[in-house]
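Progress note, sequence design subtask.
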């Protein structure tokens, strides 16, 4: 009750002072009402504080524990921010260092877009060593390409229009069989027709065969200059295709047929097309017994297969399938032979 009296006295005093200042009664009442509302209404900070306290009270943990959790989370966030800032600074420093290194290597005074080239000169000692190594490699390649030599004889009879070709002997032929030897023989024919071919006898297991055989071709004199004589040396194989060791081609237009020609010549490699298209040879036997209705297939051997592994070898095996029309009846497979061609 005394609080109410004090307020009424305060209002009376305020009205008197307002009247003395020339303020109307209504304005004074409005001022008192606004002042009362401003002093009595809570601020936004107080409201937020009350809400935070209410939330803390609702948490089942004690007050000190919740405050500690909040502080720890704030510290963790600060640490993460500091780490991110450090990484960004380190990246910028690295970029600056790289830029400085490039600037140190390149003359920045040169205009952009212009280039300058200089030849790299090897040292004299290194150059001599490399040249010697290249020579050694070339000599090795030449030695590897040696396929032997062949001695032959040519005699042309102008009256009869006949060319007598004698195959005398061969020397230093390469060994193509597993035993390190060959079974060589020579085919003799004329290009471009290849109509008539002659063959020498096969000489078993030798690299220096002596043939001493003569063959006669009928060639009119007006056609001699268009012909090319070919000696093709082969290695005989009983069960598979014969391997060509090499060949010698002699254009008759470059030969003086007025004299008997007898000489040695190096054997050259065979045509590259035959080697590139060749995938290898396989030797097998077939036997069919009608009474028993039995077909026997024996895979004997394969050779000169294509290199499939990195080391220049292969691990071959053979698959066999028996078909009736488009229907497969049976299939078999041989064992694998490791690291062989």
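Output:
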């Amino acid at each position: 009750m005394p609080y109410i009296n004090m307020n009424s006295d305060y209002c009376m005093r305020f009205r008197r002072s307002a009247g003395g200042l020339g303020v109307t009664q209504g304005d004074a009442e409005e001022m008192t009402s606004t002042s009362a509302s401003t002093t009595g209404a809570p601020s936004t900070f107080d409201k937020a504080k009350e809400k935070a306290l209410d939330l803390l009270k609702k948490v089942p943990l004690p007050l000190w524990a919740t405050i500690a959790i909040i502080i720890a989370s704030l510290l963790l966030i600060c640490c993460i921010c500091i780490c991110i800032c450090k990484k960004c600074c380190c990246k910028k420093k690295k970029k600056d260092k790289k830029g400085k290194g490039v600037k140190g290597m390149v003359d920045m005074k040169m205009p952009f877009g212009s280039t300058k080239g200089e030849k790299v000169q090897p040292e004299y000692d290194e150059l001599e060593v490399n040249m010697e190594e290249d020579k050694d490699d070339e000599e090795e390649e030449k030695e590897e390409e040696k396929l032997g030599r062949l001695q032959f004889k040519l005699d042309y009879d102008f009256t009869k229009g006949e060319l007598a070709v004698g195959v005398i002997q061969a020397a230093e032929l390469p060994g193509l069989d597993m035993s390190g030897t060959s079974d060589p023989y020579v085919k003799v024919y004329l290009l471009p027709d290849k109509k008539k071919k002659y063959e020498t006898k096969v000489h078993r297991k030798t690299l220096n065969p002596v043939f001493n055989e003569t063959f006669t071709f009928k060639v009119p004199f007006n056609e001699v200059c268009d012909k090319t004589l070919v000696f093709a040396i082969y290695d005989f194989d009983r069960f598979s295709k014969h391997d060509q060791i090499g060949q010698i081609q002699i254009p008759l237009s470059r030969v003086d047929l007025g004299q008997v020609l007898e000489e040695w010549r190096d054997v050259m490699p065979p045509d590259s097309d035959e080697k590139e298209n060749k995938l290898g040879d396989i030797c097998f036997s077939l036997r069919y017994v009608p009474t028993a209705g039995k077909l026997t297939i024996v895979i004997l051997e394969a050779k000169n297969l294509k290199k499939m592994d990195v080391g220049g070898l292969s691990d071959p095996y053979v698959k066999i399938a028996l078909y009736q029309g488009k229907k497969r009846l049976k299939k078999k497979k041989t064992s694998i032979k490791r690291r062989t061609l």
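The chain has four domains: 2-41, 43-109, 145-274, 281-333. Work on this subtask will continue into the next period as scheduled.
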